[in-house]
């Protein structure tokens, strides 16, 4: 093959890398209105009334729509019996963020004013926001019309012998696994433009999706239009991963606004909405009981699971049915039973996500199999080789028939490439290292009629250029490129002569888009068929022209010849086109399909792919931080159509799957997402991405086009359990709840060592007793009372906008403006973030970076003076600055932030509590009548473990910690005069300073005496550049002597303000440095803390940081 | 406030409102849609542009405080040709939404780093921490950057 198997560039590379590619928000639509959605603030409530009168009266508003104004139809979504979702809530809202009303307006300002003027009255109802609560016999039923409980659907599978009746003996493991709430986080926030053209009676839509036809079909149905009356336009798609493969809520809402106004309307979703109100991966809570006989052969598998559906049915019921089958399809089980429930909860619905149905079950199963192997005394790779469904011709208990498989080769390859035997032996508890493995089978498409059907069209012009038209979409996977390759290969031409469009529904024939890893099989089959049809037609034309029988026509480089005569492809196309403008062929490929088997026993896909991954991890036993060092990914996806895009699918899938087990999960509080931002939801970044070795094995599949099988999803399936198994090897404890954040890992390590997971004490301080009493009262009604009555006692603080930004011409000018009411602006990186977050911001600002003298670093008599407007990047690179300050400044946030953010801005930035930042109307946002959401909510990372007060947040400045250890002072100036503060005295609350509104920080000064000491800093962050969970700085005189002298131990992120820790300092001061004394001092400090219920781990992790920092400081002395 | 903004070598006289963001000025007023709006709070890097050759986040930069020369991806299409090809040849992008930001970040990094620093995967990865990519797993981006050191291997076939 000449083109298949070649590294061909992504067809859109020029447009993408030049910034010219047009995404939904980049398309200009003259006269477009801006659309907006009013969303439910309640997880479950009856809508008492909606008044749109005031909103309609806002100047510039063109439409205000409620459920009464839009068609009363349910979305088609995934499966007919499940349909329960409407465009706008009419009587009842069932999750926070459910669309209630819509506005289209001339400007963003008018839109905001109209949304604020909509008057909706709700009667809140009890809201079961977790699966556990929803299954309680007393739970409010979310859909009383669909049943008496919150169980949306169930599944049962019984295949082979009954696991409960299995003969005794052998080995058995049982464990409950809980997968994470992973968000798709497409880089492009969902933006849709719609334009209803009354003159054409057509709806024009620009909507990013990997499956434009499904969007078209659902929109037509919702608005009672014929399918061709909905026209989806060509568009570059900024990622999908299954999140946009079916209609979300945005598309129909913006169409409704355009139909109501007759104008083009654009609706942009903010990043916070993207996280909080779009689909997320279906979370599984699955208990597996797996058994094998004494010879290490698997026998039976028992599975019980509940999956979190959210408030409406989208993909979850179908995913459950699929997953229930997939569970028993990868090993040679002799008996299997599964019972599952898909449960409604008052949250945004979960839905399809790359690897759908297979992701969570494979993770749980591969962890269980690993544990079973260990129990039976087998090496994890050997156990898999012995038991996996892997032989061509083999049929799984569930009916899946293997057509080609290189799984054994994959397992042997990862064993060799990761140096398994040696690392397995060298790693383990106490070494900080571990290796793990996992393998899997995965479907290539599903054997359903809608999925095994693809049409394409091909045009050839007079120059012999081939243009393809497919309706499959391409969200970046390289789908378009491999279709071009398939046609180029089949026609024997250079791929540079083939172009493609893949979305426009007027111009392309139908295709079921990306899903179930079908693209490289189904759409490529269609492309090959299309090229063959074109070749057959052109052969006839050539034969007629050359006066030979068709069988005598030879093809070379796209040209036809017979004897000495040759006709070029372009000339043939002209001949074949006749009176038409171009030669065009359209054809449809249809595979063998069948209806779902009721018992789950069926050959569910045309063929199956295989993969094995091995992973090496490093675990810091002192903090619980896990780092993936290396991944070896071996895949059998048949023939690799394009090694460039195939490798990208594996590498991207590995990192995305790693995220799902290590760091990514939406956190909910009362049904509201707590972490809807890139800072708080930890998508893996480059710094966390491991070294990945990708290997493709296998000779090609007998049924796949060119021998190809699916690839897009399977990398995610194998990586997750391989990571979990590697951590288990490293720490000697099996983890079973994803993601494995440091709190979980550290708790597992301490439990392993028989050490307590709790610490702290109330002590004798009356203030602590008061705080303790408050915390006790929170779950006993105080939280609910404040939450319910607080807003009635005092209205929420409205967001403000920055009206004026002054650039001063001198320091005097700046001080005068501050005195007149303006507030200082440093880099602006936090201030503008706060504006986006809807937090109050000053209306008048004065740009301090314009004041020359404030941006200098200089040494004077041994002291270091850092101007307030010095950027973190400049401090990090300044030769005069102390190493610890350079290192700390260089570790804060990201390079781009460091180029703008200033030292004074870093010290004075507001708290990073995720409730405060992300829209919770808390004590610090709404005032004294509001609760602190951290007390009962998730406070594992960024809240105080000591001396928290009404607000549990901490001061986020990482720079303050070493500055405090260096006895630094802050020079402050206002029109009223100068003053100098110790850094220790700068704060009077979490991220709150004692500075008066008109004061500015002119400089930070580190005294010469402190600079003679040695200072070391350490931080614990969830990703490199994240705000520190805890930071430590230790500073002492002449540590090389081995005797502790003039010691400072400073902690940041553990108490509302950074502080020195006298209990540790005094225990060590004046003595010879001794690790045991440090350990004792740290434990003494731990016992004196006052953590919240869920952040005791942070006390221990901070202790770990202190020990590591002191070890570094005194390392040279030993 | 009236202000003059130098973008890709062109001077633009603008009447800026309050803390109007550089990103909005570029996209909405100047029609330069290469820099993307993906978070509007300085957390993802999709809006990365250069100000006096240093990468900054246009979404949290008030346009009024920009005193240097702004360079966007549209301004480097030719200068960055080898880097763009390297992104294409090494799988440095898939959906492409983060790519303009990645390219601008990468250009600054290549300009300010030694060959040894670029050869070190760990250093490059750390330097890219401000640019989130959800598609590639970063490996292709790192390779693309490293390929832009001299004497690298041949390109893939161009479609």
UniProtKB/TrEMBL annotation, chain A:
<dbReference type="Pfam" id="PF20256">
    <property type="entry name" value="MoCoBD_2"/>
</dbReference>
<dbReference type="InterPro" id="IPR016208">
    <property type="entry name" value="Ald_Oxase/xanthine_DH-like"/>
</dbReference>
<dbReference type="InterPro" id="IPR016169">
    <property type="entry name" value="FAD-bd_PCMH_sub2"/>
</dbReference>
<protein>
    <submittedName>
        <fullName>Molybdopterin cofactor-binding domain-containing protein</fullName>
    </submittedName>
</protein>
<dbReference type="InterPro" id="IPR036683">
    <property type="entry name" value="CO_DH_flav_C_dom_sf"/>
</dbReference>
<dbReference type="InterPro" id="IPR036318">
    <property type="entry name" value="FAD-bd_PCMH-like_sf"/>
</dbReference>
<dbReference type="Pfam" id="PF00941">
    <property type="entry name" value="FAD_binding_5"/>
</dbReference>
<dbReference type="InterPro" id="IPR005107">
    <property type="entry name" value="CO_DH_flav_C"/>
</dbReference>
<dbReference type="InterPro" id="IPR037165">
    <property type="entry name" value="AldOxase/xan_DH_Mopterin-bd_sf"/>
</dbReference>
<dbReference type="InterPro" id="IPR000674">
    <property type="entry name" value="Ald_Oxase/Xan_DH_a/b"/>
</dbReference>
<dbReference type="Pfam" id="PF02738">
    <property type="entry name" value="MoCoBD_1"/>
</dbReference>
<dbReference type="Pfam" id="PF01315">
    <property type="entry name" value="Ald_Xan_dh_C"/>
</dbReference>
<dbReference type="InterPro" id="IPR002346">
    <property type="entry name" value="Mopterin_DH_FAD-bd"/>
</dbReference>
<feature type="domain" description="FAD-binding PCMH-type">
    <location>
        <begin position="794"/>
        <end position="1011"/>
    </location>
</feature>
<dbReference type="InterPro" id="IPR016166">
    <property type="entry name" value="FAD-bd_PCMH"/>
</dbReference>
<dbReference type="InterPro" id="IPR008274">
    <property type="entry name" value="AldOxase/xan_DH_MoCoBD1"/>
</dbReference>
<dbReference type="InterPro" id="IPR046867">
    <property type="entry name" value="AldOxase/xan_DH_MoCoBD2"/>
</dbReference>
<dbReference type="InterPro" id="IPR036856">
    <property type="entry name" value="Ald_Oxase/Xan_DH_a/b_sf"/>
</dbReference>
<dbReference type="Pfam" id="PF03450">
    <property type="entry name" value="CO_deh_flav_C"/>
</dbReference>
UniProtKB/TrEMBL annotation, chain B:
<dbReference type="InterPro" id="IPR036884">
    <property type="entry name" value="2Fe-2S-bd_dom_sf"/>
</dbReference>
<dbReference type="Pfam" id="PF00111">
    <property type="entry name" value="Fer2"/>
</dbReference>
<keyword id="KW-0560">Oxidoreductase</keyword>
<dbReference type="InterPro" id="IPR012675">
    <property type="entry name" value="Beta-grasp_dom_sf"/>
</dbReference>
<dbReference type="InterPro" id="IPR006058">
    <property type="entry name" value="2Fe2S_fd_BS"/>
</dbReference>
<dbReference type="Pfam" id="PF01799">
    <property type="entry name" value="Fer2_2"/>
</dbReference>
<feature type="domain" description="2Fe-2S ferredoxin-type">
    <location>
        <begin position="1"/>
        <end position="76"/>
    </location>
</feature>
<dbReference type="InterPro" id="IPR036010">
    <property type="entry name" value="2Fe-2S_ferredoxin-like_sf"/>
</dbReference>
<protein>
    <submittedName>
        <fullName>(2Fe-2S)-binding protein</fullName>
    </submittedName>
</protein>
<keyword id="KW-0479">Metal-binding</keyword>
<keyword id="KW-0411">Iron-sulfur</keyword>
<dbReference type="InterPro" id="IPR002888">
    <property type="entry name" value="2Fe-2S-bd"/>
</dbReference>
<dbReference type="InterPro" id="IPR001041">
    <property type="entry name" value="2Fe-2S_ferredoxin-type"/>
</dbReference>
<dbReference type="InterPro" id="IPR051452">
    <property type="entry name" value="Diverse_Oxidoreductases"/>
</dbReference>
<keyword id="KW-0001">2Fe-2S</keyword>
<keyword id="KW-0408">Iron</keyword>
